[in-house]
Design a protein that fits this description.
The protein is of the alpha/beta class and 403 residues long. It is built from 15 helices and 11 strands.
């Protein structure tokens, strides 16, 4: 047998019981024993790098302190972490996960339906040298974990649900790539105005909590409510809340969008030709509401914007971006604070901020919005609407009509 074959056979037998330091020193000893060319022979036989063998030789020549004998890996040794080798890999992995993220977004736990094996292959196709174990470790560091499917109490999954989520994700990316506005909209739950309990805790002098009414009874035959309708800009991380005092109707919903556009939107998107709206399928901005579409047509005519609407599938309202990027922070900002009047509501919303840079504007809307307005077939024919061909009528574009 050649020296290389002998060393290979020795290494195969010894390798399972040697730690990193022992392998390095044993290989160095064999290379020194062979003399000239020994490093190359040992390298081919063991697949250890030449630099590792040379480090072992230097350690044998210089001797060891007690501390060095106790260490297995030399100080500073070992390969760089995947994040150091590919600084951009976290963004790449998040990009692969984003359209497939599941679960309640208001909770810190995230999970993905894609396996580590599939994600590894996707990254390898992009040119990254990674293993399944590395990807699994990075996923854990990012706060993801694999979980089994679980039905929710909101109802069964619609057959086109995943397709719709993927389509919305594609639309958002396409609009943002050309600096066209993308907003997420919804109505926050109605809030009582007055000296009523608000959930949450706030620092107070011990034993002296804020005193509020025991019961939420009407006062003088009337109980005022605030109706916060929110608009969240996905690109600029800004929000606008139109605080209504009457009813949550389609007219109120579109008026809220109109106020956002006039107060914030048109200054940020000077050259905009389109507006993408992502919304729930029910409520005042329901995908079935005729009045919603009629009011959007008026808004399109006023602004000369093509209004592109994508509705989330039924039973998926918690996935609406506005819920966990705007409304949750508003709720935290006024926790344990009685909403004594409308001015308090507007000021608390306007002063909502986050470390991530969220900024929020708010305004009180004193207009009246009548319930039960009917839209005739004739009026509906004036809506210049184009539906997406495939799937439910969750996706449509309202084009400005100039008469």
């Amino acid at each position: 047998m050649t020296p290389e074959e002998v060393i290979r056979e020795k290494f195969q037998k010894l390798s399972p019981v040697l730690n990193e330091q022992q392998k390095r020193l044993w290989a160095a000893t064999e290379a020194m024993h062979l003399g000239y060319g020994g490093v190359s022979i040992v390298q081919r036989a063991t697949n250890l790098s030449r630099s590792t063998i040379h480090i072992g030789i230097n350690e044998l020549d210089q001797g060891f302190s007690q501390h060095q004998l106790e260490r297995i890996r030399r100080k500073g040794g070992g390969r760089d972490s995947i994040e150091e080798t590919y600084p951009e890999i976290l963004d790449e992995l998040k990009g692969l996960l984003d359209p497939c993220t599941r679960g309640d977004p208001m909770q810190p736990l995230l999970w993905t339906s894609k396996s580590a094996d599939h994600l590894t292959k996707e990254l390898q196709n992009k040119g990254y040298i990674v293993s399944d174990e590395t990807v699994s470790r990075v996923l854990r560091d990012l706060g993801y974990s694999l979980q089994s499917n679980k039905k929710t109490i909101e109802g069964g999954e619609h057959p086109w649900r995943d397709e719709q989520f993927n389509y919305i994700n594609e639309q958002i990316k396409a609009f943002q790539s050309v600096n066209e506005p993308v907003i997420s909209i919804d109505t926050k739950k109605k809030e009582l105005i007055g000296n009523f309990k608000n959930n949450g805790k706030e620092w107070c002098v011990r034993g002296k909590p804020t005193q509020v009414n025991v019961y939420d009874f009407e006062e003088n035959g009337k109980r005022d409510k605030a109706i916060p309708y929110g608009i969240y800009d996905l690109t600029w991380n800004t929000g606008w809340v139109n605080v209504g005092v009457d009813h949550d109707t389609a007219e109120f919903a579109v008026e809220s969008i109109r106020r956002w556009w006039n107060k914030m939107g048109k200054a940020l998107y000077v050259n905009a030709k389109h507006l993408l709206i992502t919304a729930d399928s029910g409520g005042s901005n329901s995908s079935r509401s005729r009045l919603w579409k009629v009011e959007l047509q008026k808004f399109a005519n006023e602004t000369d914007l093509k209004i592109v609407v994508c509705h989330l599938p039924p039973g998926t309202s918690k996935w609406n971006k506005i819920e966990h990027r705007l409304f949750c922070h508003i709720t935290k900002n006024w926790r344990a604070r009685p909403l004594m009047n409308y001015e308090v509501v507007v000021n608390l919303i306007s002063n909502t901020k986050t470390k991530q840079g969220l900024k929020v504007g708010a305004e009180l809307d004193k207009n009246e919005y009548k319930l039960g307005k009917k839209v005739s077939n004739g009026l509906m024919k004036l809506v210049n609407i184009a539906y997406r061909k495939s799937g439910e009528k969750w996706n449509y574009t309202i084009i400005p009509r100039h008469i």
